[in-house]
Specification:
The chain has 22 helices and 31 strands. It is of the alpha+beta class. The strands form eight sheets. Strands 3, 12, 13, 17, 18, 19, 20, 21, 26, 27, 28 and 29 form a twelve-stranded mixed beta sheet that branches. About 25% of the residues lie in helices and about 25% in strands. The protein is globular. Helix 10 packs antiparallel against helix 14, helix 11 runs antiparallel to helix 15 and helix 14 packs across helix 15. A hairpin with a 2-residue loop joins strand 24 and strand 25. The chain folds into four domains: about 260 residues, Dipeptide-binding Protein, Domain 1 (Dipeptide-binding Protein, domain 1, Alpha-Beta Complex), CATH 3.90.76.10; about 170 residues, Periplasmic binding protein-like II (D-Maltodextrin-Binding Protein, domain 2), CATH 3.40.190; about 240 residues, Dipeptide-binding Protein, Domain 3 (Dipeptide-binding Protein, domain 3), CATH 3.10.105.10; about 35 residues, no CATH class.
Length: about 725
Amino acid sequence: MKKAWALILALMTLAVPVLSAAEGTNLQGITIRETLPGETELPEDFPEELIVGHTTVTKGDFFTEMFGNDTSDIDVRAMIHGYNLVNWDQEQGVYVVDESVVENLLITENTEGDKTYYFGLYDDLYYSDGTPITAWDYAFSLLLMMSPEIEKIGGKIYRAEHIKGYREYISGAVPYLDGVAVLDEHQLAVTLDHEFLPYFFETGLLLCVPYPIREIAPGCKVYAGQKVDLGGGYGYGIRIGNEDESVEEPVFTADLLRETIMDPENGYNSHPRVVSGPYRLVSYENGECHFELNEYFKGIWAGAGLAGSGSGHTVEYTQLAADGTPKTVTVIKPTIRKVCFRMIRNEEAKDLFEVGELHLFNKATYAPVITELLAEPALNRTAYPRIGLAFLTFTYDWPTVHDMEVRQAIAWCMDREQITKDYCDAYGLVVDGYHGIEQWEYLICSGQNFPVRLLEEGETAGKNGFSNLYAATDEEYEKIVQAWEDLSLDGLTHYTVNTDKAKELLKKAGWTLNKEGGPFREGVDTVRCKQIDDELISLELKMMYPEGNRVTDSLGENLIRNLNEVGITLELVPAPMEQLLASYYREAERTTDMIYMGTNFHSVVDPSITYSADATPAHAVWNNTYSDDEELYELAVDMRRTEPGDIYGYMVKWIRFQERYNEVLPTIPVYSNMYFDFFVPELQNYSITAHVTWSQAVAESMFQPVPEEEPLEEDPEEALEEELEDGLLEMD
């Protein structure tokens, strides 16, 4: 196979793009065209550094989600890590191969159903220190993330059951990971195990960014090429070994990684020096990050629709594809040279803008602050719907909240409509499932977007992605649309305040005693209890929430009072965000029955990880809810095991999962909402959506003097209502 793949690539044109300041042709016959935005002189008092504010603190987990997945840390990762093998395509709604990283792709399938993806990588990819990025770097990343050594230093290892040979390798039965092969410096092969397939978002299984082994595991090397007997076949696997083979003791150890990754001053997790993304981190202190442009960064692939208007700094590479047709790849080059990222409180934003200590406020959610900033004529703003949601999660394995009836009773005591109105006003919508208002599945169920289009006369079907399913005739189109219209979330219970239902549920679950062990007496006793084994358990609950979050202003009247009426007490426990997230991500011992928080989903949500009922450590560690509901888990697994492209089949399974989630309530969904970004007019070409973080959006942004414009005749409030109409179509 190695020889066959090498021969295939030899027959293709291997591109070696070289950046050029003008249109021209390089030695390999690749046409290069560079487009620069118009250069204008900025006012002398305007700072060189873009200051970005966010209400969530960074925890310093800038490496991977193995050590935490705070939304601010995710934003930092998008700044400093790049060249992923695959990317989310907004237009199609699927993962696709990143054409600025992968020059050629070949997919094969054997008789057993294993699928092998052969990647031919460009050879113009570099780290921020100018060293080349090769197939060995991607191989190291995969091995590192699944290594037991990561688990020993407190990380959550990468569950790579989808890679052929993973189980044998991770158990120590064989010395090599058979499902990944490095064929040469720029050729990588990854084999997906047929036992894991089908997987609806199959290409998403190939997500991988390169990490520098010399920074993370100095003295180590990735080895490949040795035949490995897997009992019925041989393969060319990969492993991590000592760079100096004369050294007998393994260099790659937990102690090594504890020093190189977790050191608070110099570890790669919080202070990565050599990176692959558009920016490099130059300092991180007291939760504040400072970045500078990575001069060696090739650019962000524009083909996935991650950028805005296309008027920024772009470079086009045009070459002949394998079939002889011209192929153009466009990348976006960031122009803002310095960026500061810091946490701010909602109430600080207006004053910080006024004194020039804030240029971009990302993801504003608190309605009074949004209203205040909307009234500022000196600020620009953009609104976009949220993929995630706010929710109340349980420490599911605690006896106080393990009964489904207890969680349902709490939901029947929670006035989610009023809580949402108090915090989000008109910019939030109560949701009953595990989704946000901008998730494509929800858009289908709410009738806002059907993934089908009638072909026009003479038109042929294009890419077979989410947004590009086609019908050839009116009859076919109407039949498909009718099928989509029949899908709904009408089977979900909409929990509103009903304390009588809550009381009946608590009685049904056996919470019928008082603190003395006698029968609970309404109007006399304050707390319901239940005898569990040899212990009398009381429903005296605690809920952790982010310190300073104003949602607690509404919880007393709209949750706690109703809980008291049914025999439950609730103590609100404020905690710094770092402590709350550590508790949620199982990095610290849980101290409360519940946590109030929010999440932003990835473009692909796989709840079989979040709600795994698999008790093995590699699975349980990712289950942040501690859920043990087998049916919920099985529905999640069934959902992911849908053939790619079968959107309708996936949607049917997705609805079944939502219905079970809505019944068992491992978390109580509260609301999904609109995000607002406010920014100074000098920050131009800033385009953000639900699928694009601010750190991606600034790639095409620039600092420019504000052009003089005629006064707007349109009422600003009417303009805002028009902007919100699409995203909040169902909110009124």
